[in-house]
Amino acid sequence: MADRPQDCALQLDDYFECLHHTKEKARARKIKAEEVKQIEKKRQEDEKARKSTNSTAKSNVTRLGIIDDQKSSSNSDSN
Fold first, then answer.
1. In whole angstroms, what is the distance from residue 71 CA to residue 74 CA?
2. How far is CA 79 from CA 23, 58, 65, 74, 75, in A?
3. Count of H helices and E strands in the chain?
4. How many Cα atoms sit within 13 Å of 49 on the Cβ side?
5. Which tens digits make up the pLDDT trace of 26-39?
6. What pLDDT is recorded for position 76?
7. CB neighbour list of residue 24: distance below 8 Å, 6 or more residues apart
8. How far from the centroid of its chain's Cα atoms is residue 72's Cα?
9. Where in the cell is it found (predicted)?
10. Which letter, b or e, does each residue of 50-71 get, where b requires 16 or more Cβ atoms within 10 Å of its Cβ?
11. H or E segment at 34?
12. Is the pLDDT of residue 52 over 90?
């Protein structure tokens, strides 16, 4: 019922979206890309934390008995 085709531009856009779902698919791709990005970031952070934990566990502090000596000396001080 419009006099000019420009008057129906929004309805035409909705019609083509309904037929082809281009905007919906583009939105889904963006969401999936962000999800993959966040998963990769989390995996890298976890790996970094794991490496830090492993290096702490491999340190010489516990092998030298520094931690145990402090505990035993504090126990003897209290007796």
1. 5
2. 75, 33, 21, 9, 7
3. 4, 0
4. 6
5. 999 999 999 999 99
6. 54
7. 17
8. 43
9. Mitochondrion inner membrane; Mitochondrion intermembrane space
10. eeeeeeeeeeeeeeeeeeeeee
11. helix 22-57
12. no
**pLDDT for residue 71:** 47
Scan for tokens 């856009």, then name that residue: 13
Length of the chain counted residue by residue: 79
**CA pseudo-torsion sign 16, 22, 23, 28:** positive
Look at the block and give the residue holding tokens 């092998």.
63
Alpha carbons 29 and 48: distance in angstroms, whole number: 29
Neighbours of 26 (CB within 10 A): 10
What is the pLDDT confidence band of residue 62, given thresholds at 50, 70 and 90? low
Q: Using 50, 70 and 90 to split pLDDT, how confident is the model at 4?
A: confident
